[in-house]
Amino acid sequence: MANSLKRSLSLPQIIALAAGGMIAAWMVEIKYWFQLSGTGSVVALILCGILVLPLCLIYTEMTTMLPFAGGENIWVSNAFGWNTGWLCCWFVLLMYVMAMPTVSYGIASMAGYLIPITSEQTKIAAAIILLIWYIMSNFEIRLMARIQSFLFWSTLIVAIGADLIFISSGSWKIGNLSPWFPNGISGFGAAVALLIMKFIGFDMIPQLSEEITFQKSKLWLAFAGSLFFTALIYGTAIIAVGGIVSQEWIQSVSIVDPKVADLLHMHWLGIVIVVMGTLTCLTTLTGFWVSASRTLFGAAQQGQLSSHFTKLNKYGQPYIGNIAVCILSIFFTVFAPEAWVNYIYTIYGVTAGIVYLLVVLSFLQLRRIKPEWNRPYYLKFGRILGIIGVLFCLYVIYQSVQALDFSAWMVLGIYLLFGAALWAFAKIRQRQNPEHWKMIITTPADIKENS
């Protein structure tokens, strides 16, 4: 493998990239959480995080065993073959690219707190942001990682600080948190599944595994750290605003936390939260962007896409992949409906459920057929945690499919048809030019070539 990504990412930077991908415009999305399960959404969030933890530990073992960009694709390809790996790769790419509407519309909603902005202006601003980020993505990832680290740790301080101000304001009452579960078991159950969208980001770590500078056995700290900080920020936000305003009030506003600050006569805090929230969205964009381009890079290394996607610029960045990510990002952002929160959560749920299910099944399969492969991190009670992971993923898929609307089905259908066309093209090229399009499945034997 002639083209190799540069090693330049420290453990704190990996945590910032992963957690930054999970933490987006919650002051806008929190309306949906309360709609699902009221203040009890904090319990659903914690339970979802606990159920995601086994997935993180499975990812840790798989990443240390096969530490390559395009992680899930490579794992599934080794377990179930090249074609199933291709399918997994296509869903992983969708999972990352769908983050772009979250970022752009989140920024627009927050900007509306300061300056009124039309839907047309929103789309134009979003496209400009994506084009700027495309330019930045072609420089050394170390630069983007430093920006990401600064923005993430700043976000953590500001978010927790604002929540503490809300809780200590004198207007916060524990009685205001009731009713905890206004939609009963059904609403709570849906929240447990759909809130997995807020933990999508830990899966970025395998895409960056070729670029880490620390020991692979410590990767579990990156997974656990990103999961913890995400749950901390979202959980405190739910408790902080839920103890001040009613659930009906939350549904009546376009953005929650800054409006709560206004109620407390702290407009300055609202401005700080909006600025911080905008920067948070940019951290989300950074993490998902670099992971999407590296997903394409890994697929090209296995002959699933054109070898052009393995080409690197002088900064060691997969510039062809960055172009593809830019085009797809603008497409999904411009054509996202106004009810973008429900639309993104349900598509994310289906997509993440399928990807994680394939990973867990691959984990169990490779434990069975490749027990001799070196695993720097070996997960204890792997079979039990694997079964829990399978059941959880099936539950997420079921709940998400139940919630899909027509526009979401259309997006999924078009995306899968486009993917089928690309898969068919790859199969044709394999017959026409087997030398340049041969099926390759990366194994541990290739690790030395990337060290």
Describe the structure.
This protein is an all-alpha fold and 451 residues long. It is 70% helix and 0% strand. It has helices at 11-22, 26-37, 41-65, 71-80, 82-97, 99-111, 119-137, 141-167, 184-194, 204-207, 219-242, 247-252, 257-263, 267-301, 319-334, 340-369, 382-403, 406-432. The longest helix is centred in the middle third of the chain and has 35 residues, at 267-301. It is globular. The N and C termini lie close together (11 Å). The model has no long low-confidence stretch (mean pLDDT 81).
The gist of it:
With 451 residues, this protein is mainly α. It has 18 helices and no strands.
Question: Descriptors for this entry?
Answer:
70% helix, single chain, 451 residues, mainly alpha
Weakly predicted, low-confidence segments: none
Total beta strand runs: 0
Mean pLDDT, rounded to whole units?
81
How much of the sequence lies in strands comes to under 5%
Topology:
Elements lengths: L10 H12 L3 H12 L3 H25 L5 H10 L1 H16 L1 H13 L7 H19 L3 H27 L16 H11 L9 H4 L11 H24 L4 H6 L4 H7 L3 H35 L17 H16 L5 H30 L12 H22 L2 H27 L19
Helix pairs in contact: 1-8, 1-11, 1-14, 2-9, 3-9, 3-11, 3-16, 3-17, 4-5, 4-16, 5-14, 5-16, 5-18, 6-7, 6-14, 6-15, 7-15, 8-11, 8-14, 9-17, 13-14, 14-15, 16-17, 16-18
